[in-house]
Structures are given as C-alpha cells and as structure tokens.
Amino acid sequence: MKKQSISIVGTGYVGICTAIGFATKGYKVITSTHNPKKATSINKGIPPFYEPDLQESLQKVVRNGYLECTLDREEAILNTDITFIATATPSQPNGSINLQHIKNSTREIAEALNKKDAYHLLVVKSTVVPGTTQNIVKPTLEKNSNKQCGVNLGLCMNPEFLREGSALHDTLNPDRIIIGEYTQKSGDILESLYKDFYGEKTPPIIRTNLVSAELIKYASNAFLATKISFINTIANICQKIPKADITAIAKAIGLDKRISPHFLNAGLGYGGSCFPKDVKALIAFSKSLGYDSMLIKAVEDVNNTQPQQAIELAKKHLGNLRNKRIALLGLAFKPNTDDMREARSIPIINQLLNEGADVTAYDPVAVSNAKSIFGDKIKYASSAIECLKNTDCCIIVTEWQEFKKLKPEDFKQNMKTPSLIDGRRIYNPEEFSKKLKFAAIGLGQ
Ligand code: UDX
Question: Is 6 in a helix, a strand, or coil?
C-alpha cells in the first residue's frame, strides 16, 4: 500500500519531532514555516532547538529525501494527504491560551485546500482548550476552503504527549494514542496511519470525540503537575521534621501501584513550555465555564512558591545574602534541553539578585538562552568546577547528569565556604553532610 504523504504546520518540538518520526518510518513529510532562516536550517539538517540525538535523525531523513521544509505552505498542503497542525498556543496575560497561530494556520491550510479536489484530513496536534477544534478550526476550515467537514474534508484532534529531552523517543514510543474524531471516516484514516506507523508496537488507541481529546491533554498535564506539587508539599513538611526524608517517602508511596513511582521527584517545582501554560489555561478555561478549579489553582500556587525554598535554605546557611557569592548549577527547566521557558532558575536568580547576592551560573547547554534573559546581571561559568570557585553557597537547580558526578571534595576544594543546597535531590545526604554544610529539598534538618 502506498504510504500517505504528510504535511506539518509548525516547527516547534511537536512539529519537528512528529515530522522526523514519520520521515524515519519512510513517509514523505513536508514541514512549512514562514521563517526563511528556520527553513534553511531544517533543510541543512539542523533542528531549531537542542534535543539529544535529534540532529542526527534530522540529517538522515533530509539526506534521504523523506523530509523537507518549505516556505510555500500551499505547495505543502496540495502535495500531501494529511496535514497536522502543531503550532504554538502560548498563554495570554490572563492565563487563557492565545489561538492566533491556530487560526492563521487553519486559514492558510483552508485556502490551499480550496484548490484541491481530493479528500484531505486535517489533524490538530497543538494543545487547545475544549471546543477549539469544533468551534474555531472547523468553521475557519470550511469557510476558506469551500468544503465541508465530513464530506470532502476530514477533521481530527490528536494530542501529543512528548517530553523535551526525550522528544523523539517519546514520539516513537508513546504510551497511548488519542484520536478525537469529527466523523468516523476521519478517525479511521488516522487510526490506520498510526497502525501502519507503529506496526506491532502500536500502543492502545483511544477513539473519542473532539472535546474529550482536547481535555485529555489538559487532564494529563494537570495530573502530572498535581503529582509534582503534591510531592513538593510533602517535601516542605519533611523539612520541618528532623530526619524526615522525602526520597524514602516518595519511593515508598510510589510502590503502591495506584500511585506509581513516576513524577514523584521533589524539587524546586515544574517549569517548561507545557505544565505552567497548560495549568494556567485549564484554570482560565474552567473559570470561563463558571467553575472555580480550586485543586488546580493550589497546584499552581505550590509551584509558584517552591523556588523560594532554595532561597530559604541558602539563608539558613549564610544568613543575609547581600554580597554573598552564589554558584547556581543548572539553568534549563530540566536536564537534556536548552529550554529556559518558565525554568525555576529564573525566579531563583531574580530573588537572589533582589537580596543583593552575586550569582555565577553554569549549565551544559542553556547558557546562551540564559544570557538573553539575564544579560550581564549574573556571571556565567564554562564548567561546574569553574562555577564553584570562591563562592559561599551552591544551589543545584537542574539535575544534569554531570552534576550528579560531583563529589563533596569538588565543593570543598573550590568554594570559599563549602555550603550546598540540593534543590533536586541528586546527592546522598549522609555522604555530603559529613563533609560540608549540606541542605536539601525535603530533608528534615
Ligand atoms: C511535559 C509532559 O511530560 C509531556 O507529556 C507533555 O507533552 C509536555 O509537558 P516536559 O515539559 O517536556 O513534558 O517535561 P517533563 O519531563 O514532564 O518535566 C516538566 C517539569 O516538571 C520539569 O521542570 C521537571 O523538572 C519537573 N518535574 C518532573 C519535577 O519537578 N518532578 C518530577 O518528578 C517530574
């Protein structure tokens, strides 16, 4: 059977990883962007962001002719059978999502489809609040294409669950596939595409309506964010009980199959391009329906105050932070990415600067993104050891693998006064507290 050809609108994590995923399995994929620099770079095999192993995979599919990026959206749509929309849905100042990119992309796709006779399937992959596909995408599509969904157009909502740092792996090995369908035919086409794509490894496929598919994405992210704020709450309680340790508690509760061990790592809170935005959007969306989502608001409140824990622990060690030299290890919102969006390092650094501290930071890949946020307000080191030199206190903000390898001696030998705040629970408290002043999230003093 001839493989369907695919166009993808949007060149962020979801767009690029979906494109590379399909291309890797031999589908002809055309991505499109309005940014000439991005297109040139993708066509050279250089992804627009850092992600482990992504460049290698992109180069391979570009070289083999399975993936190309064009500035001509119409050509991309007309030469393919299925189009995925994977454009960004950023937050507005009131927390609700901004659907401008979705609206513009849908209109452009529809204008191209106006010139096409054959049936075409449009799949919304972007995270959108319930009702968006039915009430915004569908009418925009029908009006500008002069076609009708369910007649000569197919429409599905198919949320994506990939994580940064393991984006391609997640694309190729999802836990489940959600297909929200406008008509059975649209769902059948998408299901057969995924069955062909994953073959024997096809995960469970849930077919449902458009609104449920849209809400599944928010419910998943809000639930994971809830687990994090929950474990951080217990961690904060631990800190007030001598000898209590969140690591043992998380391990123990995680063994209960109903709870599961995942997403129970206590720390300085969640960041990134999804959780903060999606939690906010769900709160704003519920409010628009007249429902006050108290639980989700509490999840957000806990997360907003969690970075402050690092500051409080540093103050316990140093007293006043004025003119104290602080080493900050880890700037990215999580390891294996250079993404600084909503990174916990941002509120921590801002607070340290407000308190008059002198901050030196190091991150294996996020320094250049951090420079665009902090400029010369902080210093940047080119290694973890250099970052520690002559400092009074070190805060671990992101759990990069290379920080896990540091020994108590590295801190003792390089810092002026060896004091360490483990914000991500990467060190053994017994080993470290014997050799230096040591405090950690979720560890009773
Ligand atoms: C998340 C979802 O996992 C993914 O399914 C969705 O598609 C996009 O949003 P991502 O933001 O890339 O993915 O990273 P994730 O690994 O989920 O981590 C998000 C944040 O939570 C990070 O800041 C991380 O440090 C934090 N986190 C995660 C914790 O603090 N504790 C944990 O146990 C897990």
Answer: strand
